[in-house]
Design a protein that fits this description.
This protein is of the alpha+beta class. Helices cover 41% and strands 13% of the residues. The protein has a 5-stranded antiparallel β-sheet, with helices on one face. The protein has a 3-stranded antiparallel β-sheet with strand order 6-8-9, covered by helices on one side. A two-stranded antiparallel ribbon has the order 7-10. β2 and β3 form a beta hairpin.
């Protein structure tokens, strides 16, 4: 199979960038870390090159890069604050960081993730930063579901979507327009730098912006509510976030009134993507995918913003 031009040239750019900072011989080749329509990522030695989504606007990406560069100890800093154009895609360069091991869930850095989020949320946002893209990504997932159109599974997901407030569906602006947020927090967004055992850092600036900080807690909250994250892991995450002074939830007491809407939104987003992927691959939903669809079915029968887990 012939390598497509973007991947081939991105590999070359990663090699060139890696060797621009060292004169020593490099025995290793390039590794493709991701090759999706919304991101192509290549590693060469200690350098990573990322081609961002085709619709990424320089006016949005550049201030996001600048923000990451000025968040030492929170975000992995880019190797430069100006993207380059490659086959019509914006490309950025980063130091390599060691990712979370997906095969060893017992070592998942829940406390580190929560502490980094709390520090991020407490940092004043730089001027000119665009809105956090969390609700937009949820809306795009629902649009993809509608295009895939597996109606039997889609009904409970769309019903749950319609119960959400307009801001969570990206139909109106978020009420918080000052808090610095990641926008797409999950364990794949953490790396150790320097690799392999340096401190944890957040990665991926594509959704970074100002908005509702609760959105950054939404995925683990949704997993917990759907029974996919253990109460112990949820307690570790929430406790570390509170201990670090995170502003998205009260310092004590029931956090769910602050998290219910965003957890519902992430459950819908996850279910919508799952159904779309299964439909496109012409396969049945697996057990985890079915669990989030079932959670949407339960959500449709109860209004949001109630105390307590929606999917319990």
């Amino acid at each position: 199979m012939t390598t497509h031009p973007l991947l081939a040239e991105l590999t070359l750019r990663a090699r060139t960038e890696a060797h621009s900072r060292t004169s020593s011989a490099c025995p290793c080749g390039a590794t493709t870390l991701a090759d999706r329509p919304d991101a192509t990522v290549v590693r060469h030695a200690d350098t990573v090159a990322k081609a961002h989504a085709p619709d990424t606007a320089p006016a949005d990406l550049i201030p996001r890069l600048a923000a990451a560069a000025h968040l030492p100890g929170i975000f992995l800093p880019p190797l430069g604050e100006s993207p380059v154009d490659l086959h019509g895609r914006l490309v950025t360069f980063w130091p390599y960081g060691e990712p979370v091991d997906p095969e060893n869930p017992d070592t998942a850095p829940w406390e580190a993730a929560a502490t980094l989020l709390a520090r991020l949320h407490r940092t004043p946002a730089p001027p000119g930063l665009p809105p956090m893209r969390g609700p937009v990504k949820a809306a795009l997932a629902v649009a993809r579901l509608l295009a895939a159109s597996r109606r039997g599974h889609a009904v409970p997901v769309l019903r749950a979507w319609r119960t959400l407030p307009a801001w969570a569906r990206a139909e109106t602006p978020m009420s918080d327009r000052t808090t610095l947020c990641h926008g797409d927090l999950h364990l794949g967004q953490l790396v150790r730098h320097p690799a392999p055992d340096g401190p944890w850092h957040l990665i991926d600036v594509d959704d970074l912006g100002v908005g509702e900080p609760a959105w950054d807690l939404a995925r683990p909250a949704a997993w917990y509510a759907c029974g996919l994250l253990s109460p112990d892991d949820w307690s570790r995450f929430l406790g570390a976030y509170r201990a670090a002074g995170g502003p998205a939830v009260p310092a004590d007491g029931d956090p769910w009134p602050a998290l219910d809407v965003v957890a519902r939104a992430l459950t819908v987003q996850t279910a919508a993507r799952a159904i779309a992927k299964a439909t496109e691959a012409d396969r049945a939903l697996d057990d985890v995918e079915q669990a989030v669809v079932d959670a949407c079915d339960r959500m449709g029968s109860a209004p949001p913003q109630l105390a307590g887990g929606f999917a319990k």
